[in-house]
Amino acid sequence: MKDSIDFGSMEIPKLFRKLLIPTVLGMVFSAVFVITDGIFVGRGIGSDALAAVNITAPLFLISTGVGLMFGVGASVVASIHLAQGKVKAARINVTQAVAVSSLLLAAYSFLITSCAREVALLLGSSERLLPLAVEYMHWFAPFLPFSALLSSGMFFIRLDGSPNYAMLCNAVPAVINIVLDYVFIFILGWGMTGAALATSLGYIVGAGMILGYLGRRRNVVRLCRVKTSRKSMRLTLRNVGYMCRLGLSTFLCEGAIAMMMFAGNYVFIRYLGEDGVAAFSIACYFFPIIFMVYNAIGQSAQPILSYNFGAGNGARVRKAFRLALLTAVAAGLGFFGLTALFSRWIVAMFIDSSCPACAIAVRGLPLFASGFVFFAVNIVSIGYFQSVERPRPAMAVTVLRGFVFMAACFFGLPLLLGVEGIWLAVPLAEALTFAVVAAIYGRTRLKSAF
Questions:
Q1: Where is the chain membrane-spanning (predicted)?
Q2: Whole-number Å distance between alpha carbons of 73 and 85
């Protein structure tokens, strides 16, 4: 199960490849997870169902963001502890992250499930989409803690030197989701209930695999018994607070996608109605897939960066970051080219060409993809700042990128460019963020020169 990985001495390119290949493959399976849902919902239930799922998607992104926040924060802290020989402290951090995040998301799921109709309306659902959105939420929201555990557990397993097993934790739920989606939607005709249940069961299996691994006593990174005394609880709160501070930018990255979906749904339904939301939902299915690959690059670099930062080896930190950045730029150029060339084929996977939403999406996807390179640099840069315990620049870049620039572009560009402005809102927000990132790099270099 384990791979021969030494974060402190192995050659950086070899080490990065050992982590990157299974991590990207795992993210590809996650992408298949997302795409399959979209294809089966769009083809098996209809474009309104696709739009309804997109209305509820921010809820899922928030829960995933919580999982990633604890995963990144605990992984960075545990990496530094391991580099300093503090194995028990690393285990305690991982255990605290799993326990606290699970409790938070259990409360979050209960709140959503008990107020599903009100939440759907708050997210911008129209009366026409409301029954479909509520039905989906009732069978999806209760299982959000499992999806978050799957997201955070990947970091701990890779830190323990088992990136191939982490890949399996993504692959197995994806296969389960594909099979159950087909059975529940096309054979049993369960509609939105079937789509939500297939996804939820996949997450349950994946979370079970994570817990099974972290429960093995022979692993270095594993769950352990935590004291429940008053002093221990105070220390837990302190540790969790620091983890959240380090990982908050990752949570906000997921929140930024939720913001993109919320603002996009609002603007599209205002300009083009439900067909516009259905077209935008295809981009929203596509965008997290790109994000997953960029995230895989950042997550592969994270334990290398954090471990060597904790060991005081700045040369290895810089080399790993440069390699991650070049990989991200190459991926961004590739994704942009593929989207521009095959936008019609991508749209055809989700909805029939006779739907009005099809023509809207075919015209809009290439515009939407024009910011993929900037997006790549921004995500890897945020991951770098987190990995070397620089939460402030990570937070500043994330907030500007995902909220300030995003909101301004979504509500401002359509006034100037019409519908094309909606599609270009995300690329412009990413480009503006890239300018901020470049300014931070320039300022850091200037300081180091003196």
A1: 20-40, 60-82, 94-116, 136-156, 168-190, 196-215, 240-264, 276-297, 323-347, 367-385, 397-416, 422-442
A2: 19
